[in-house]
Specification:
mainly alpha; 4 helices
Length: about 100
């Protein structure tokens, strides 16, 4: 049985499966419309391993929060907001005098 085109050891990039017709996919995977026989399924299981997604390490909430501050622009905006807050508390605009005639 030939290896599917998308096999990583083959060196060629996997096909765009979503763009292929069902017949083309069956031909690429050397499959039958009625499915794989038990022997074919066991052979592919041995060759390619179980059809399970690898679970990647997830970032903690703290890591996600701290990652937000990697951008210099974000740090500048935080400093500008802090300066604006403290200056705004200490400085009040002069009262405008309105004279009625």
């Amino acid at each position: 049985m030939p290896a599917p085109t998308g096999e990583s050891a083959g060196g060629s990039p996997p096909p765009d499966w979503h763009a292929l017709s069902a017949a083309e996919v069956q031909r690429e995977l050397d499959a039958d419309p009625s499915g794989l026989s038990t022997g074919d399924a066991e052979e592919r299981l041995q060759r390619y391993g179980p059809n399970v997604l690898r679970e990647e390490e997830r970032e903690s909430r703290l890591q996600v929060f701290l990652r937000q501050f990697k951008s210099v622009l974000i740090v500048i905006l935080i400093i500008a907001a802090a300066v604006s807050f403290f200056v705004g508390e200490a400085w009040t605009p002069p009262q405008s005098s309105s004279s009625s005639s």
